[in-house]
Amino acid sequence: MKYPTIKSVHIIDDNLLIVEFSNRESRKYDVTPLLNKKMFSELSNPAFFKNVKIDQGGYALIWNEDIDISEYEIWKNGTPI
């Protein structure tokens, strides 16, 4: 199955995102569980977290060359809204 791509992202608070997909559905995604992993620890910094961008193809949210979250992860583990 091909998952929809990311069209927009909105920051709700220091750990919470609202992500809209190409099929017009949205998911609320909490990054808090990821903060325990060293790779994602920088996301606990509110200023850094707010620098989120959408990958050019809509396949991920990216913060820098080392930190990204795939559209699959957000689609499967986000809460539909």
From TrEMBL:
It comes from the Bacteria. Gene3D superfamilies: NE0471-like N-terminal domain. It holds the Pfam family DUF2442. InterPro entries: DUF2442, NE0471-like_N. This is DUF2442 domain-containing protein.
